[in-house]
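Supplementary material to the annual report.
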Amino acid sequence: MKLSKLLATAAVALGLATTAMAQDKTKVGFVFVGPVGDGGWTYEHNQGRLAVEKEFGDKVETVFVESVPEGPDAERVMTQMALEGADLIFTTSFGYMDPTINVAQKFPNVKFEHATGYKRADNVSTYSARFYEGRAIQGHIAGKMTKSNIIGYIGSYPIPEVIRGINSAYIHAKKANPNVQFKIVWAYTWFDPAKEADAAKVLIEQGADIVLQHTDSTAPQAAAQAAGNVYTFGQASDMASFGPKPRISSIIDNWAPYYIARTKAVMDGTWTSVDTWDGIGAGMVGIGEISSEVPDDVKAEALALKDAIASGSYHPFTGPLKKQDGSDWLKDGETADDGTLAGMNFYVEGIEGDIPQ
Amino acid sequence: MIRLEKRPEPSRVWNYAAPVVAVIATMIAGGLLFAFLGKDPVASIKTIFWEPLFSEFAFYYRPQLLIKGAPLVLIAIGLSLGFRAGIWNIGAEGQYIMGALSGAAVALALYPLEAWWIFPAMVIAGALGGWAWAMIPGLLKARFGANEILVSLMLVYVAEKLLAAMALGLMKNPQGYGFPGSRNLSQMPWATSWINQNAGLHWGVLFAIAAVIAAYVLLSRHLLGFQIQLAGQAPRAARFAGVNPTRLTLFCLGTSGALAGLAGMFEVAGPSGIVSIDFNAGYGFTAIIVAFLGRLNPIGILMAGLLMALTYVGGDIAQSKLGLPKAAIQMFQGMLLFFLLAVDLFTNYRLKWATKEAA
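Predicted assembly:
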């Protein structure tokens, strides 16, 4: 633990030095898993970073490193940021969880914010968005818009967050259209345009005329455009350039309000470790414009659903719901608790296929 | 008019000068690239090469060079043996994954057992895992003449799928709330490869140094080393000299596979800690550059591995300090191999000023 002490001393010394030099310039670091130009997940986190710069101007300095592999490289990049005097570091991928905790132990005075994880500490918060709320609206539109009744879904990794999205989209597609069927392809990547395009083509060949995606590139949109009568939804980012068709709406991650609030908390000295899981109501999940391809009545229904979710009067996982194996999950009117949702590892009744193990 | 003329003998001077010239050319071309991106070229190059070694935080960065460099050197040493003999193992990345999975499997299967023999067993399992994965292209080549470049490369993608399946299934941490990824091996004192984390020292670093020495002795003192060189330079002559090409193929692929497997095992039990979906970070491919940059020479590979590690560590510093995009750093690293291959021309050829021939 000698180095930990050394690191901590260095951090403190540097902290003093920077305070002395540039009075109260707060330094905020961002560790990104993809390139800032991915047009999806990392793009939106970077938008959040830019919003922090815009909000606080000269009072803040932001730094970032992109395409950081999850593992020892992430730990080094975080340490490097902390050494160089960052006050607050956002680590924006699930795989950064253990590295974040490790580095946070060595730098007790630096605040860390880890996206989508479950390990916290005195100086480590976690935050995520209730993307499944957006999936419900997406599922509804998809169910109404499909003609072949086959909806394709590009999964990234079979982790709870992705399974939650599939379930939510399926439940609401089924409600809108009882004949609907889901075909799911696992791409095993968050961002790989070539693999995503292949997955989209396979789904389209199998008859899907709607392709939903939980991967971050616009390759599926391009594949849908090439195929003609196939609709898609923007993922993580609006992907508006593919509208009004094939992209007919989108789920937008809006991290800016959270990043601004947390930066402010560090500046004010009011930062504490919290676990945040916000949805449409708090503005962390946005629904991109529903395009002119969608009939007005469907659009109105979708917006009503969005409002009901935002106000809290409707929960996307409301019983009666059964699990895929036919066992009861939620009773009539019962809503899912966050614990079950956080660790969701089962499909709801009606989805075909197995979750890869 | 400038003309290329084949040298009667490969130039010794150029053989050693080529990497140095390539590094200098990379610095110049990279500096230009950074200048076009609106960054100060001198500051950028200095950040990449100088900061990790001599800045105020060098006490942290220097050990990081060992962590980053050890797997590169270990894998590259194995690859260099095959490359010298004309046996092209491009799939070290897959063997690295298989070594990690095999090694991790030992500790995870026995968890929570604590015993002194677990780590040695992991080392053996790691080496065997990589060796076995490399034996697939080896046996296919020996038996059916299948191209080892294609087979070994394809097996990387198979290994990646297996890795994902393990992280999501069999090796998933039962206390991980359903999230993918295994238990953290680096937190099990009986299973970790760390010796001293603060000094960047783990068993992989020691094995890498040992591999450099062993390869040096093998190539300069041992008959097998002579046979490897002969098979690469003059396959027909090698046959007459009694070299068994099948055995040589299996030896070279097996050794490189075992070393890549070891590198993966030390990584997963130390710096990385967990079997995760994205565990492999490209060491197996980067090691190919390291092997060539080091002239397939053990000492050269040691230096090339550290140089490559330097560009990684320095590159990340340049990203956060100067806002250089990752793609520019990757291009910079790619230029190293590009210029080396270009400059290598002068080892076998020389420039000639041809005067116009009078009719």
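Chain B touches chain A at residues 57, 59-61, 64, 67-68, 160-161, 164-165, 168-169, 177-181, 184, 197-198, 267, 271-274, 276-279, 281-282, 312-313, 316-317, 319-321, 323, 325-327 (CB under 8 Å).
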